[in-house]
Amino acid sequence: MRRAEFNVADENELTKLLDETSYGTLCLNDEPFAYMTPVNFIYHENSIYFHGAMSGRKYELSLKNKRASFSAVAEHSFIPSHFTSELACPASQFFASAFLQGELSLETDSLKKAQILDILMKKYQTEGKYLNIEKNLDKYLSMLGKTALFELQISSWSLKIKAGQNMKKEQFESVIEKLSLGGKSVDLATVEMMRKMRK
Length: 199
Description:
The structure is a single chain. The protein is an alpha+beta fold. The protein has a single domain (4-167), classed as Pnp Oxidase, Chain A, CATH 2.30.110. It is built from six helices and seven strands; from the N terminus they run αββββαββααβαα. It has helices at 11-20, 57-64, 110-124, 137-146, 169-182, 185-198, and strands spanning 24-28, 35-39, 42-44, 47-53, 67-79, 92-107, 147-162. The model has no long low-confidence stretch (mean pLDDT 95).
Protein backbone atom coordinates (compact mmCIF):
# COMPACT_ATOMS: atom_id res chain seq x y z
CA MET A 1 0.00 0.00 0.00
CA ARG A 2 1.48 3.34 -1.06
CA ARG A 3 0.22 5.33 1.93
CA ALA A 4 1.58 3.36 4.87
CA GLU A 5 -0.25 5.51 7.43
CA PHE A 6 -3.58 4.15 6.16
CA ASN A 7 -2.51 0.50 6.28
CA VAL A 8 -4.07 -1.41 9.19
CA ALA A 9 -2.79 -4.86 10.12
CA ASP A 10 -5.25 -5.50 12.96
CA GLU A 11 -7.35 -8.55 12.08
CA ASN A 12 -10.02 -7.44 14.57
CA GLU A 13 -10.60 -4.35 12.43
CA LEU A 14 -10.86 -6.56 9.34
CA THR A 15 -13.45 -8.75 11.07
CA LYS A 16 -15.42 -5.71 12.22
CA LEU A 17 -15.54 -4.30 8.69
CA LEU A 18 -16.61 -7.59 7.10
CA ASP A 19 -19.21 -8.31 9.78
CA GLU A 20 -20.79 -4.87 9.44
CA THR A 21 -20.68 -4.49 5.64
CA SER A 22 -23.84 -5.54 3.83
CA TYR A 23 -22.24 -6.47 0.51
CA GLY A 24 -18.86 -6.97 -1.12
CA THR A 25 -17.59 -7.13 -4.68
CA LEU A 26 -16.35 -10.42 -6.08
CA CYS A 27 -13.82 -10.32 -8.92
CA LEU A 28 -13.35 -13.38 -11.16
CA ASN A 29 -10.99 -14.06 -14.02
CA ASP A 30 -12.53 -13.83 -17.47
CA GLU A 31 -11.44 -12.88 -20.98
CA PRO A 32 -10.86 -10.25 -22.21
CA PHE A 33 -11.92 -8.44 -19.01
CA ALA A 34 -12.27 -9.37 -15.37
CA TYR A 35 -15.82 -10.00 -14.17
CA MET A 36 -17.01 -8.20 -11.03
CA THR A 37 -20.30 -8.65 -9.22
CA PRO A 38 -21.72 -7.53 -5.84
CA VAL A 39 -22.70 -10.27 -3.38
CA ASN A 40 -24.15 -10.57 0.10
CA PHE A 41 -21.69 -12.51 2.22
CA ILE A 42 -20.44 -13.62 5.60
CA TYR A 43 -16.92 -13.80 6.95
CA HIS A 44 -16.47 -17.04 8.88
CA GLU A 45 -13.33 -18.90 9.97
CA ASN A 46 -11.02 -17.10 7.54
CA SER A 47 -13.34 -17.58 4.58
CA ILE A 48 -15.87 -15.50 2.69
CA TYR A 49 -19.12 -17.35 1.95
CA PHE A 50 -21.82 -16.31 -0.50
CA HIS A 51 -24.56 -18.11 -2.38
CA GLY A 52 -26.07 -18.07 -5.84
CA ALA A 53 -27.58 -20.12 -8.62
CA MET A 54 -25.99 -23.32 -9.91
CA SER A 55 -25.74 -21.77 -13.34
CA GLY A 56 -24.80 -18.46 -14.90
CA ARG A 57 -21.61 -16.49 -15.37
CA LYS A 58 -20.49 -16.37 -11.72
CA TYR A 59 -20.98 -20.12 -11.34
CA GLU A 60 -19.26 -21.03 -14.60
CA LEU A 61 -16.27 -18.75 -14.00
CA SER A 62 -15.78 -20.10 -10.48
CA LEU A 63 -15.45 -23.60 -11.92
CA LYS A 64 -13.11 -22.45 -14.68
CA ASN A 65 -10.61 -20.57 -12.51
CA LYS A 66 -10.65 -20.85 -8.72
CA ARG A 67 -8.52 -17.78 -8.04
CA ALA A 68 -10.59 -14.76 -7.04
CA SER A 69 -10.41 -11.37 -5.36
CA PHE A 70 -12.95 -9.73 -3.07
CA SER A 71 -13.38 -6.23 -1.70
CA ALA A 72 -15.66 -4.58 0.84
CA VAL A 73 -15.94 -0.90 1.74
CA ALA A 74 -17.45 0.91 4.71
CA GLU A 75 -18.23 4.55 3.97
CA HIS A 76 -17.49 7.03 6.75
CA SER A 77 -18.05 10.80 6.66
CA PHE A 78 -17.27 13.02 3.72
CA ILE A 79 -14.99 15.81 4.93
CA PRO A 80 -15.76 19.07 3.07
CA SER A 81 -12.82 21.32 2.32
CA HIS A 82 -14.21 24.23 4.36
CA PHE A 83 -13.60 22.20 7.54
CA THR A 84 -9.89 22.93 7.23
CA SER A 85 -9.26 25.34 4.33
CA GLU A 86 -10.64 27.96 1.94
CA LEU A 87 -9.38 25.86 -0.97
CA ALA A 88 -11.34 23.03 -2.59
CA CYS A 89 -8.47 20.53 -2.60
CA PRO A 90 -8.62 19.25 1.03
CA ALA A 91 -12.10 17.74 0.55
CA SER A 92 -11.85 14.04 1.32
CA GLN A 93 -13.90 10.89 1.83
CA PHE A 94 -13.08 8.87 4.95
CA PHE A 95 -13.59 5.10 4.62
CA ALA A 96 -12.40 1.62 5.48
CA SER A 97 -11.75 -0.91 2.71
CA ALA A 98 -10.67 -4.54 2.69
CA PHE A 99 -9.06 -6.36 -0.21
CA LEU A 100 -8.89 -10.15 -0.10
CA GLN A 101 -7.50 -12.84 -2.36
CA GLY A 102 -7.91 -16.59 -2.31
CA GLU A 103 -9.31 -19.71 -3.96
CA LEU A 104 -12.94 -20.57 -4.51
CA SER A 105 -14.61 -23.89 -3.84
CA LEU A 106 -18.21 -25.12 -3.87
CA GLU A 107 -19.73 -26.66 -0.76
CA THR A 108 -21.78 -29.74 -1.64
CA ASP A 109 -22.69 -31.16 1.77
CA SER A 110 -26.30 -30.22 2.61
CA LEU A 111 -25.70 -30.00 6.36
CA LYS A 112 -22.69 -27.72 5.99
CA LYS A 113 -24.62 -25.58 3.49
CA ALA A 114 -27.47 -25.30 5.99
CA GLN A 115 -25.12 -24.27 8.80
CA ILE A 116 -23.41 -21.57 6.73
CA LEU A 117 -26.68 -20.26 5.30
CA ASP A 118 -28.06 -20.00 8.84
CA ILE A 119 -25.11 -17.76 9.74
CA LEU A 120 -25.82 -15.70 6.62
CA MET A 121 -29.48 -15.34 7.61
CA LYS A 122 -28.50 -14.19 11.12
CA LYS A 123 -26.43 -11.40 9.56
CA TYR A 124 -29.17 -10.11 7.27
CA GLN A 125 -32.34 -11.07 9.16
CA THR A 126 -31.44 -10.03 12.68
CA GLU A 127 -35.11 -10.00 13.70
CA GLY A 128 -35.36 -13.77 13.11
CA LYS A 129 -38.95 -14.78 12.33
CA TYR A 130 -37.97 -17.58 9.95
CA LEU A 131 -37.45 -21.31 10.29
CA ASN A 132 -33.86 -22.21 11.13
CA ILE A 133 -32.42 -24.04 8.12
CA GLU A 134 -30.31 -26.64 9.92
CA LYS A 135 -33.06 -27.50 12.40
CA ASN A 136 -35.64 -27.82 9.62
CA LEU A 137 -33.45 -29.51 7.03
CA ASP A 138 -36.30 -31.56 5.59
CA LYS A 139 -38.15 -28.38 4.62
CA TYR A 140 -35.09 -26.89 2.91
CA LEU A 141 -33.49 -29.89 1.17
CA SER A 142 -34.99 -29.11 -2.22
CA MET A 143 -33.83 -25.47 -2.12
CA LEU A 144 -30.39 -26.44 -0.80
CA GLY A 145 -29.98 -28.76 -3.77
CA LYS A 146 -30.63 -25.86 -6.15
CA THR A 147 -28.39 -23.39 -4.30
CA ALA A 148 -24.67 -22.99 -4.89
CA LEU A 149 -22.68 -22.10 -1.77
CA PHE A 150 -19.29 -20.63 -2.59
CA GLU A 151 -16.35 -20.45 -0.19
CA LEU A 152 -13.45 -18.10 -0.81
CA GLN A 153 -10.58 -19.37 1.35
CA ILE A 154 -8.51 -16.29 2.08
CA SER A 155 -4.80 -16.52 1.35
CA SER A 156 -3.96 -12.82 1.70
CA TRP A 157 -5.67 -9.61 2.79
CA SER A 158 -5.05 -5.92 3.29
CA LEU A 159 -7.07 -3.28 5.12
CA LYS A 160 -7.02 0.44 4.43
CA ILE A 161 -8.63 2.90 6.82
CA LYS A 162 -8.56 6.58 5.92
CA ALA A 163 -9.52 8.57 8.99
CA GLY A 164 -7.33 11.64 9.08
CA GLN A 165 -4.10 9.94 10.17
CA ASN A 166 -2.10 12.25 7.88
CA MET A 167 -3.68 15.50 9.13
CA LYS A 168 -1.86 18.08 11.18
CA LYS A 169 -3.08 18.29 14.77
CA GLU A 170 -5.03 21.54 14.32
CA GLN A 171 -6.74 20.22 11.16
CA PHE A 172 -7.55 16.94 12.89
CA GLU A 173 -9.11 18.69 15.89
CA SER A 174 -11.09 21.02 13.62
CA VAL A 175 -12.61 18.08 11.76
CA ILE A 176 -13.40 16.31 15.05
CA GLU A 177 -15.18 19.42 16.35
CA LYS A 178 -17.26 20.02 13.23
CA LEU A 179 -18.29 16.38 12.85
CA SER A 180 -19.28 16.24 16.53
CA LEU A 181 -21.42 19.35 16.19
CA GLY A 182 -23.34 17.78 13.31
CA GLY A 183 -24.44 14.91 15.55
CA LYS A 184 -25.25 12.47 12.73
CA SER A 185 -24.61 8.83 13.57
CA VAL A 186 -22.18 8.41 10.67
CA ASP A 187 -20.25 11.50 11.79
CA LEU A 188 -20.06 10.35 15.41
CA ALA A 189 -18.86 6.92 14.25
CA THR A 190 -16.25 8.65 12.09
CA VAL A 191 -15.03 10.67 15.08
CA GLU A 192 -14.63 7.46 17.05
CA MET A 193 -12.68 5.87 14.19
CA MET A 194 -10.47 8.96 13.80
CA ARG A 195 -9.48 8.90 17.46
CA LYS A 196 -8.86 5.17 17.36
CA MET A 197 -6.63 5.35 14.30
CA ARG A 198 -4.73 8.37 15.66
CA LYS A 199 -3.39 6.45 18.67
